[in-house]
Structure to design on (245 residues):
């Protein structure tokens, strides 16, 4: 079984199109989307339409859940933009996606089994995301673990093999290579490059992981963010780093 694994698209339509085009040439059996599909100042509605029209499996991200709100009042700027751009059917579809799935023997989550807003493969040190200690990952996963666990949320491409042989993979973010966050604690996530990230996971006698970084027209996406009043997103899309303060 070869799985194409995508996550954290955040409404970046041209990045998603580039990733799907590359996946179509890589002979994957299925594609799984680990959530956070639309939130952001880019193309939420168009992105959701493409996802729904493309055969793949989906799990719900924390921002997908947030878009199920009855109104945009109280949502952050990115969620609020997406809420207004999406129609009710699209918002209901996002909010109704499953928390987790088993796909081809892999456990698929947005973040961790604890909840959709807790990092699995990442920890916060000095205000930045770093690789989590294996023991902390084992604690979050619990004692019974499948051969492969797939997660997103941190936007950091990561790979960890635990002592029992469990392989845990984060494919990185398709559409948002850097961000600031204030929970849990103020921190930044930076990939260091503007490329659209995804992974291919091959499950056979051995588990093999391919991390991919695809070039696309990120300047087009950055101009879209600027046009929608988000200089922070524009800088992240161009550089893979957060806007200096």
């Amino acid at each position: 079984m070869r799985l194409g694994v995508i996550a954290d698209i955040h409404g970046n339509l041209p990045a998603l199109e580039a990733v799907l085009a590359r996946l179509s040439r890589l002979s994957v059996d299925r594609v799984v989307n680990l959530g956070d599909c639309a939130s952001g100042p880019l193309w939420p509605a168009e992105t959701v339409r493409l996802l729904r029209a493309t055969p793949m499996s989906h799990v719900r991200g924390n921002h997908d859940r947030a878009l199920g709100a009855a109104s945009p009042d109280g949502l952050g700027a990115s969620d609020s933009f997406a809420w207004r751009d999406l129609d009710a059917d699209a918002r209901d579809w996002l909010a109704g996606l499953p928390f987790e799935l088993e796909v081809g023997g892999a456990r698929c989550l947005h973040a961790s089994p604890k909840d959709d807003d807790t990092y699995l493969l990442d920890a916060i040190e000095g205000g930045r995301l770093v690789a989590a200690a294996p023991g902390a990952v084992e604690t979050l996963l619990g004692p019974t673990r499948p051969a492969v666990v797939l997660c997103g949320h941190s936007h950091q491409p990561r790979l960890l093999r635990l002592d029992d042989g469990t392989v845990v993979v984060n494919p990185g973010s398709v559409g948002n290579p850097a961000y600031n966050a204030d929970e849990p604690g103020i921190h930044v996530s930076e990939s260091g490059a503007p490329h659209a990230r995804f992974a291919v996971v091959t499950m056979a006698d051995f588990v093999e992981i391919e991390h991919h970084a695809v070039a696309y027209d990120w300047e087009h996406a950055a101009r879209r963010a600027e046009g929608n009043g988000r200089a922070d997103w524009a800088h992240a899309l161009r550089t893979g780093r957060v806007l200096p303060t």
Notes: The CA atoms of residues 127 and 187 lie 4 Å apart. The chain has a mean pLDDT of 97. Residues 2-239 form a domain with the Purple Acid Phosphatase; chain A, domain 2 fold (CATH 3.60.21.10).
